From TrEMBL:
PANTHER family: GLYCOSYLTRANSFERASE, GLYCOSYLTRANSFERASE 2-LIKE DOMAIN-CONTAINING PROTEIN. SUPFAM superfamilies: Nucleotide-diphospho-sugar transferases, UDP-Glycosyltransferase/glycogen phosphorylase. Residues 441-608 form the Glycosyltransferase 2-like domain. It comes from Kutzneria albida DSM 43870. InterPro entries: Glyco_trans_1, Glyco_trans_2-like, Glycosyltransf_2, Nucleotide-diphossugar_trans. GO terms for molecular function: glycosyltransferase activity. This is Glycosyltransferase 2-like domain-containing protein. Keywords: Transferase. The keyword Acetylation does not apply. Residues 234-411 form the Glycosyl transferase family domain. The keyword Transferase applies. Transmembrane segments: none annotated.
Length: 850
């Protein structure tokens, strides 16, 4: 949900119009949009605590007018107090009211925080919050942003855009004091805020005043008009169809110098019967309205001037007419403002977008915003007079009377405006805080990981991209606590509080088991990720006892983006320093990892919980991670191989898996250290067909100094390669036989072996087509069968490709000693399908611990 706050305290102003343009991007992506008009901010608009009336009629129907609850119940927070603070503290530098400002800002911040929490705000857009009309509210807003960002686990979720600043809004009056404006609330470096300056000069002046800001960008206002308009505008307001019409969209206040437009209409009288339409709130300054009405009478143009009141922004299709309708029938748009009163181009920008030529004064920032870009206009040089000069009137008359010139100027400006102020700029700006900007959720299951977690979180926080630290807005962390009894959760929350620029969500999963925790985290991330057409969102698995390389996430993300595969898998390695005293064990590990590098490059491999990514749509397509249960000792236990099982279902659905060799994860050596005897015998994760996660805390660390005997090393290798080969060399082509048509795969297998493998796979699939639909079993039996039938040839190819040290297939199970050669294939089937004894599982083991 997007929360907007305008510090202008008016229903329709340049601030509100710009908010609508940016908020529309959020709305189109499914966000609710709430807008606080800021009635409790500015004291000089007479709207403090006043209920909304018909203001919503001036806004799109997808904008919900709202305000912070409880502000009217804060003792001492009154319009009188706000006025006094502006006069005494900001303008005169009297600090006696500052303690009251601080106390009230804390109360205000609490109200803001409660409102945002109730609504579930995910993004905030602040319009003009730096202008010191109400430093109490600005202080409160900064406090609320920091508190809410930590509470909600959000990264950058605030766009803070300043349209007016002290040196741009009536600086001659001294209304906001003098530089360096000591009591104006300066922008702060916050991981939650993206500041927006509307041009380079504003950015430069802001940083000269406030100091360097980490997150400030230059982004001008944007404009996007549709061509359609409601007919009958002129008739409705009594303006003849044939006369030239000048439009002025502005606040009806003295600083806007509408009197210049009245003098211009009068001076044009002997050339053409030009009319003027002023779109603005005539009730804002009754004194100025009366002065202008009297001046129109005095100049004899009262019958050619229409004070039309508020018009809805052009985006709104309200009951009445909008700015869109006015500009569709106008011949010129005027902005003859004061020299020191900038409006950042709402009138001029609207004219450019609507293909209407404009005239303006050379106000202080005109060149900065428009002139230097080359826009064409009739400009009134204020150095030559305070009112329209004869030469200026001549230029305006010439333009009004030359339709071709007007059309040419308007078309030129429109093309230039599309380049500099097009709607794409608004989309770029909104993406800075749109939740959809987050492209990855890193799911981290944890159980009693207090010792390792700080290092793991730090490695995730310090991820790098191609050109430096990875933007923390690109990813988030979903930490799933699986019933930890140590300080795991406290450590995670403390890390999140100290590093609020990276969103860290802590969720819990009461059912014990890493598979259950991984599923809970991925389901959570998949459900909350916003849908952004054309942008893929990735669910990324990580393990809390492993450490990712600095570019792990970026390389995985880049590979997924480039290949558009459903799953991306990482490369894994052990740090050699952990095995310096165990060279035989190290050699066995490296053999397996070398085989893995070759086959994963060919086939893409299968996901491992230590590090893989899946496209959110593919995840949901197959129903997410499935928890498979087995019976162990008379009770149900969840199967450990959820990651493999999930990958099989994704690949079996016709999706691709890609290998990202430069996305690397260091495996914690405790996976080998904790029970080296079980590793050697192929029972590290279970036996007799039951695969479960065991607690692998470093209680057996003493084993790190003990190497394997030659016999143990050979036994460990045999279990490792028996586990590896069916899964990583046979299973990919079993699930995706078309891989056997790939030139690289054919080269690896040889044409003859590839052809015979393909034929045998087709036969086995036909034979087993309805025997078992459970993926964890449906892949095991045929993979084991194909292993036995083709082991000699496959090992020959591994020796040729990976190295001669791969050796030959381990000995067959003793059960085959008495099987006649001609019946070998028959008994292979019986052996591999015999799940009751678990013999096949025990033979192939689970050497995947390497």
């Amino acid at each position: 949900m997007l929360w907007g706050i305008s510090f202008d305290a008016t229903p329709i102003s340049g601030l509100v119009v710009e908010f609508i343009k940016t908020a529309k991007v959020f709305h189109e992506r499914g966000h609710q949009v709430h807008l606080d008009l800021g009635y409790e901010v500015k004291a000089d608009k007479g709207a403090f605590f006043r209920p909304y009336r018909d203001e919503a009629d001036l806004l799109p129907d997808w904008v919900h007018l709202d305000r912070i609850e409880g502000v009217d119940r804060i003792p001492g927070y009154t319009p009188e107090f706000v006025t006094e603070v502006l006069a005494q503290v900001v303008q005169r530098g009297d600090e006696r009211l500052l303690p009251a400002v601080q106390a009230l800002s804390s109360r205000l911040a609490a109200c803001i925080l409660r409102t945002w929490q109730r609504l579930g705000v995910t993004a905030v857009l602040v319009e003009n919050g730096t202008l010191p009309e109400n430093i109490t509210y600005t202080k409160a807003l900064y406090q609320a942003i920091e508190q809410y960002g930590r509470w909600a686990g959000l990264g950058r979720f605030v766009l803070w855009r300043d349209h007016d600043l002290m040196w741009q809004s009536e600086p001659g009056t001294g209304k906001y004091g003098e530089f360096p404006y000591p009591h104006t609330v300066t922008p702060i470096n916050s991981p939650h805020i993206q500041y927006v300056a509307l041009h380079e000069q504003a950015r430069r002046r802001t940083e000269q005043w406030a100091g360097p800001l980490d997150n400030i960008v230059v982004a001008p206002n944007t404009f996007s008009h549709s061509a359609d308009a409601r007919p009958g505008f002129r008739r409705h307001y009594g303006i003849p169809e044939h006369v030239p019409l000048i439009a002025r969209c502005t606040r009806v206040i003295q600083q806007k110098r509408i009197d210049r437009d009245l003098h211009l209409v009068a001076a044009l009288a002997d050339r053409c019967e030009a009319h003027l339409f002023v779109a603005g709130d005539t009730a804002e300054s009754p004194v100025e309205r009366d002065r202008l009405t009297a001046l129109a009478q005095e100049l004899g143009v009262a019958d050619r001037v229409v004070f039309g009141g508020w018009l809805a922004p052009h985006e709104v299709r309200a009951q009445g007419y909008s700015v869109r309708d006015l500009l569709a029938t106008a011949d010129l748009v005027s902005f003859l403002t004061s020299y020191d009163y900038e409006s950042y181009g709402n009138p001029i920008g609207e004219a450019i977008a609507a293909r209407v030529p404009y005239l303006a004064t050379r106000y202080e920032l005109y060149e900065t915003v428009y002139g230097h870009r080359g826009f064409q206009a009739v400009l009134m040089d204020l150095a030559h007079g305070d009112l329209p000069t004869p030469s200026f009137v001549d230029e305006v008359a010439e333009l009004l009377l030359d339709e071709g010139k007007r059309a040419s100027m308007a078309e030129f400006n429109h093309r230039l405006g599309t380049e500099h102020f097009g709607r794409g700029r608004a989309e770029e700006l909104a993406r800075a805080v749109l939740p959809a900007r987050t492209r990855m959720s890193v799911v981290l299951p944890v159980y009693n990981e207090a010792e390792n977690l700080p290092t793991v979180l730090r490695s995730l926080y310090e991820q790098h991209g191609e050109n430096g630290p990875l933007d923390h807005g690109l990813y988030e962390v979903v930490l799933v606590d699986n019933n930890s009894t140590d300080d795991t959760v406290a450590i995670a929350r403390d890390f999140a509080e100290r590093n609020p620029d990276l969103a860290i969500h802590v969720v819990s999963e009461p059912e014990q088991g890493v598979a259950c925790a991984r599923k809970a985290g991925m389901d959570f991330a998949a459900a909350r990720a916003p849908v952004d057409p054309g942008r893929r969102f990735y669910l990324v698995s990580a393990d809390a006892d492993c450490q990712v390389d600095r570019k792990w996430l970026w390389e995985l993300f880049s590979t997924m983006e480039a290949n558009k595969a459903a799953i991306g898998v990482c490369d894994y390695y052990y740090e050699a320093a952990h095995f310096t005293k165990r060279p035989r064990l190290w050699e066995m590990i490296q053999r397996t990892l070398r085989c893995r590098a070759v086959t994963f490059a060919l086939f893409g491999g299968f996901p491992d919980g230590k590090g893989f990514a899946v496209d959110r749509e593919a995840y949901q397509k197959v129903g997410g991670v499935e928890i498979f249960y087995q019976l162990q000792g008379g009770r149900f236990v969840n199967h450990l191989s959820d990651d493999w099982d999930f990958g099989i279902r994704v690949r079996g659905s016709g999706e691709d898996i890609v290998y990202s060799p430069r996305s690397r994860v260091e495996i914690n050596p405790r996976r080998v250290d904790h029970a080296i005897e079980e590793v050697i015998t192929g029972r590290a994760y279970g036996s007799d067909g039951i695969i479960v996660m065991r607690d692998i805390r470093p209680r057996a660390a003493a084993g790190r100094d003990v190497d394997l005997t030659p016999e143990q090393a050979q036994q460990a290798w045999e279990f490792s390669i028996k586990d590896f080969t069916p899964k990583n060399t046979i299973l990919p082509v079993l699930l995706t036989p078309s891989l056997l048509d790939d030139a690289a795969v054919i080269e690896f297998f040889t044409p003859s072996l590839a052809q015979r493998l393909g034929a045998r796979i087709a036969e086995i699939k036909e034979e087993m087509r309805v025997l078992d639909f459970t993926p964890i079993h449906s892949y095991k039996t045929p993979s084991y069968r194909l292993y036995f039938e083709f082991a000699e040839e496959i090992f020959a190819r591994l020796r040729a490709t990976v190295g001669e040290d791969i050796g030959y297939p381990p000995p067959l199970p003793p059960a085959f000693d008495e099987v006649p050669a001609e019946r070998f294939t028959e008994f292979v089937r019986y052996y591999c399908e015999d799940r009751e004894s678990g013999e096949a599982h025990n033979y192939f083991g689970n050497g995947g611990v390497f």
